[in-house]
Amino acid sequence: MNPAPITPVVEDENRPITEEARVSAADLILMADRIHTMAGSTAPTAIAIAGGVIVALGDRADVRDWRGPGTEIIDLGPATITPGLVDGHFHPVMGIGLTRGVDLSGARTLEGLKAALKAAAVTPGGWIEGWGLDPNAFDGAPITHAPLVEAAGPDVPVFLLLFDGHSALVSPRALELAGITGPRDFPSGAGVVCGADGRPTGHLLEFDAYHLVRRLLPADEPAARRKRLRDLLDRMAATGLTAADAMDFEEDSLELFRALEDEGDLPVRWRCAPFVMPGAGADGLDDVIARQRLTGRRWRVEGAKFMIDGTVDGGTAWLDEPDTHGESTACLWPDPAEYAAAAHRLAGHGVPIVTHAIGDAGIRYVLDTYAGLPRTRAPHRIEHLETMPSELIGRFAELDVTAGMQPTHCTHYTRADHSDNWSTRLGKRRADRAFRARDLRDRGARLTLGSDWPIAPFDPRAIIAAARLRRPAGHADIEPVLPEQALTAEMALEGYTTEAAAAAGRSGRLVPGQRADLTVFGLDPLTADPDEFAESPIPLTIVDGTVAHRSQ
């Protein structure tokens, strides 16, 4: 194989090649038995990087022509190099605030929940906090604060975020402190769940409702938040992630990203989409437009994040027909036309639109809205897509709309026999048309994969495996959920590489001129058994041609 010339072409994200990339020697050369360029049938075993971009591909024998006195050369032996992995849906700053206290994701029963709360530490303000609670722990019974009182007593304020991030369970003392004594009206689809006696059960649906309690929690110190975010980014890089789409840019996001970049380069690059909530108004939309100019070395704001509905588990999705509880019939926006008008205004200013849409009615409305939007540099996209009829599948390719899905939402929180809370609320017909990843790909849709952290763990190896298995990796005893929707190994890898890059208007392939974001696996993601691949070592993660993670 003849090596490509060292002088590269211009990279595809409006970033000119730097003078450093025009030198005659590479900064970094990697060699490995397999390099999946995702660009065709060529099979190089060496890759040269200069000035943060790929400048040559070839064989190990070509390395002598690329090296200079300052070149670092790493031979990774039998490892596999791929384009850098991109998580298509992440909440970094919001997530470090929501994942405080005890991790309840392992609580599968009420007894497990109570045991975890009894062992939980109390904050300096006297609260017990927790996150990741799966409603399936209630085994179909109403979600109430009774187990919180049993575990912590009547006088301790408790705030527990449910796994979906759209609802919370709080104790009677927390309700008292927040002044919540009965139902509340909110402009969005939020609500305070009350029993037959009109008294709150402790179950708070959607942000507007649970924020009444969450705002009372002790605040994190800025230094502690910086440390938690830096630790999160380091852990992401250690799993092979080189980039992620942040589906928010609220609170202190700007201050945190700038503070971390003052300390050094971020180990993961970010593309951020600020929230647009009902009632944002002209001033709120103007602010989102203005924030599109914000950027750093490895982060930028590009896009706007909407939600057209809530969740199936909370009864706040937007379905064509009510769920089995008679709920999930309304749009999150009191007037859906206001959502459409806001999306049109932003798209008219070149802002890509991202919309959370769970239910069939919500997905249909968003697709109808997108059909009339101006095109933007990066395509508009819809996230989650939990249940939808076949007639909507082909519209994604027709409208050039990116589909964003999170495979572990299916494999971690639903069951093949439909006995889980999500499936029983939908009923068999709608649960049978759920998480249709393969149907979308087979009909030509662009499909990007991700975690939605902190809603589910972010390790891309386990998510790629789950996309293929339709069950959690390492659990061969669990029956797959709708196995006909499984992705091939290549499709799953594309969902974290080329498909994710295309969703941002880039190539994502390992070819000269492209930015040097690379992931190195101990196992080949295209040939390894998916259960084994979920445990694959990550020897090296490269961002902008520099080492973001190196295993010891």
Automatic annotation (TrEMBL):
Pfam families in the cross-refs: Amidohydro_3
Signal peptide location: none
Domain Amidohydrolase: 72-548
InterPro entries xrefs: Amidohydro_3, Metal-dep_hydrolase_composite, Metal_Hydrolase, YtcJ-like
Xref: PANTHER family: IMIDAZOLONEPROPIONASE, PROTEIN LONG AFTER FAR-RED 3
Protein name stated in the entry: Amidohydrolase
Organism: Actinoplanes flavus
